C-alpha cells in the first residue's frame, strides 16, 4: 500500500525505528535509514531490507542534535529519490532520575533528540511535501506524552511537547493533503527491554516474570509488551491513503496505560 512512496525514519538502526522501516519497505516504500551503530550491523540491516522486500534503502548518519546534519539528511533523501512522502520522527533517548538531579546537559540532549529534531525535519520536509501535493508526518511519542510518571521529567516534557507540535503542524497543513499524527506507545519489546529485565531482576532480587509484571509493566494493564511489528503496522496504516482524514491525533498503543 506504499508502492512508489519514499520514507525517512529517524533513529531506525534499532528497535521501533527499524521495525517501522521494515514495515514500510514490505509495503513497497523506499526508505532512508538513520541512527547510530556499528557500520557492519547497519550494512546488514540495509542488505536485509533489500533482500527481504526488494525495497531500495539508503543510510544517513546524521546526529539528531545537529540541525546542519539534519538538513543534509533531508537533502540526501530528496536528492536520491526526488521526493519525500513519509517522515517518521522516531529517534529518542530516555533519562531516569528526580527532576532536581537531572544533569543540565542530559535535559538539553533529551529535548534536542526527542523534540527539536522533529521541528527541524518537519520544517525542512514540508516544502517538498507541499510541492509534490501531499505527505505524511508520524511522530513517535509515548504514553508519557499523555500522562506523567515520576523520574521522567525531561522525557515526559519532550514527549508532551511533540504532541503539541503534532497538533499545530496538523492544523497548518490540514488543507494540503498532509497529515501529522503522534503514536504513543507504552512498553515495547526492544533489545533494551531484555537488558532492562535482567538488570531489574538482579536489583530487586525478583524472578524474571515478576519483574515484567510488577516493575516494567506496572503501568500497563494488559501486562504484555507491544511488538515493534505492531507499531510498524500502525505507522504503515497512518502513512497509507486510507488514513487521509486522521490528523492532529495522539494515538496510544499502550495496552490501556492511558485509560487509567
Ligand atoms: P532504541 O534505543 O532501540 O532506538 C533509538 C534509535 O535512535 C537508534 O537507532 C539510535 O541510534 C537512534 N538515536 C539515538 N540518538 C540519536 C541521535 N542523536 N541522532 C540520531 N539517531 C539517534 O529505542 P526504541 O525503544 O526503539 O525507541 C524509539 C522511539 O520510541 C523513541 O522515541 C522512544 O522514546 C519511543 N518509545 C519507546 C518505547 C519502548 O518501550 N521501547 C515506548 C514508548 C516510546
Automatic annotation (TrEMBL):
One family name in Pfam for this protein: adh_short_C2
One GO MF term: 3-hydroxybutyrate dehydrogenase activity
SUPFAM superfamilies: NAD(P)-binding Rossmann-fold domains
GO terms under biological process: monocarboxylic acid metabolic process
Record InterPro entries: 3-OHbutyrate_DH, NAD(P)-bd_dom_sf, Sc_DH/Rdtase_CS, SDR, SDR_fam
Family indicated by similarity: Belongs to the short-chain dehydrogenases/reductases (SDR) family.
Protein name per the record: 3-hydroxybutyrate dehydrogenase
Organism: Microvirga lotononidis
